[in-house]
Amino acid sequence: MNAKRHTKSSDRNNSATKLFVLDTNVLMHDPTSLFRFEEHDIFIPMKTLEELDDNKKGMSEVARNARQASRMLDEIVSGGEDGIAAGIDLLKPSHELASGRLFLQTEAMNGTLPDSLPTSRADNQILAVVMFLQGKFAKRPVILVSKDINMRIKARALGLAAQDYFNDKVLEDTDLLYTGSLALPADFWETHGQNMKSWKQDNKTLYQIQGPLVPSLLVNQFVYLDADKERPFLANVRARDGKTAVLSTLVDYSHHKNAVWGITARNREQNFALNLLMDPDIDFVTLLGQAGTGKTLLTLAASLTQTLETKRFSEIIITRVTVPVGEDIGFLPGTEEEKMTPWMGALEDNLDVLNKPADEPGQGGAYGGDWGRAATMDLIRSRIKVKSLNFMRGRTFINKFLIIDEAQNLTPKQMKTLITRAGPGTKVVCLGNISQIDTPYLTEGSSGLTYVVDRFKDWPHSGHITLQRGERSRLADHAGEVL
């Protein structure tokens, strides 16, 4: 990532290297930020070190990051005590990722702050250091880097340059996020049909094509052409090699003969999603979408079919980030599974839909009356395990169907911890809505879900689709649009 993204466009033409003053929350958010500023210099105020020390205790992600940042600083400084005042070269400690220098505060720096800003506050002490440095290096850009919005506002009000930390952001604009599908132009077959080869394989038709669109296609990307409304062309990219690509037709999950646990796709994107969820060659699936687009329902239906009917997986494991929307209601009684139950309302709602009785009265339900329905629910629940994120480290899941719900609240580091739990035969599915992030300091651009969607695209064993249309109810659809 380019450290110059920290600067305004007007600064980019300035040949002088910049001096970035790091706020504590930047180091606690990303300890490797010390090596993310390329040729520019970094300044760490003494108050930043004290705040790192105050936050190092505990088992939270913030405490772990504070400890890691302290260890990294110790390694850097222990090799260059003699040159702290002149700055420690970062080239060797960063393995040539950064060529700037690290400066630590070695003297009292008291910039003249307004009387309304008490120096007893840590933020104001850091601002005083920035103000002092700006006066000392008049010809050099001195920029405060902070994840705290109010800190940046205060800095700008004092006439100081301040920026957010951008290196953890995968995308500046989430509108550019990979959607997993592409509408083909109306003249697609005219421009790509020359020298086309076609053959049958596993009840699917495959097309080998060449043309101007091929270089931009990604493996497992879905393509569609709506020229024939009755029978639109739907396919996914099976392979791409240089100037040629292989397209494969899909299983039509909108037809009742291909229903998955009684569920059929209600729109194009749901059909794409079920093709990913049911494909044995796909190990990792990400589904994005607003509330009511069917992410959880489709995933549960696919997981139950492959666990109970085709026996491809031994059990289903569901986990989610426990971030409350309102005030926390305190400690919950019971075992790990019982503590997680209040967070799994969505699971219960979807299981009710999937285990619905027969539509006709007097038929006694789809699974042999109320007794049969209750027995089926018991069987299903015995194969679904609800786990907490807190106890995932060090585990290995073999032949499991792992569902990570509300994945937009995970950091990239937490996402890596979870996905690397997958052993042989395990499929991982991440569900989320990046417009509903409840975790402080995470944005749509820096969410772990955005991170994996971007990093896994074009890998042959992963797939992604963004679900567009809500299928919950007309009330929910209208609320999603107007509220």
UniProtKB/TrEMBL annotation:
Domain PIN: residue ranges: 18-153
Keyword ATP-binding part of the UniProt annotation: yes
Keyword Magnesium assigned: no
UniProt keywords, alphabetically: ATP-binding, Nucleotide-binding
GO terms for MF: ATP binding
UniProt xrefs under CDD domains: PIN_VapC_PhoHL-ATPase
SUPFAM superfamilies assigned to the protein according to its UniProt record, in alphabetical order: P-loop containing nucleoside triphosphate hydrolases, PIN domain-like
SMART domains per the UniProt record, alphabetical: PINc
Recorded GO CC terms: cytosol
Pfam families associated with the record: PhoH, PIN_4
Record family assignment: Belongs to the PhoH family. In the N-terminal section; belongs to the PINc/VapC protein family.
UniProt protein name: Predicted ATPase related to phosphate starvation-inducible protein PhoH
